[in-house]
Write a structure and sequence with these properties.
The protein has 63 residues and is mainly α. The chain has a single domain, classed as lambda repressor-like DNA-binding domains (434 Repressor (Amino-terminal Domain), Orthogonal Bundle), CATH 1.10.260.40. The chain is built from five helices and no strands.
């Protein structure tokens, strides 16, 4: 999710505001410490302007 958030030029706080969640909650999701339900995945995808499938299937490349 961090990749898409950065690409969209959004801070954690701004993304959280757009979906009704806190900045710490967004940070926990990005670290993998917080599970999300399907409705939240859809809200995140809409806020990030990506499809839910893209959000769930993204694998970052390692350098």
């Amino acid at each position: 999710m961090r990749h898409f958030r950065s690409a969209a030029g959004l801070s954690q706080a701004e993304l959280g505001r757009r979906i009704g969640k806190s900045q710490p909650w967004i940070a926990h999701v990005e670290k993998g410490d917080q599970d999300v339900n399907l409705g939240t995945v859809e809200a995140l995808a809409e806020a990030l302007r990506v499809s839910p499938v893209d959000l769930l299937s993204f694998t970052p490349r390692r350098a």
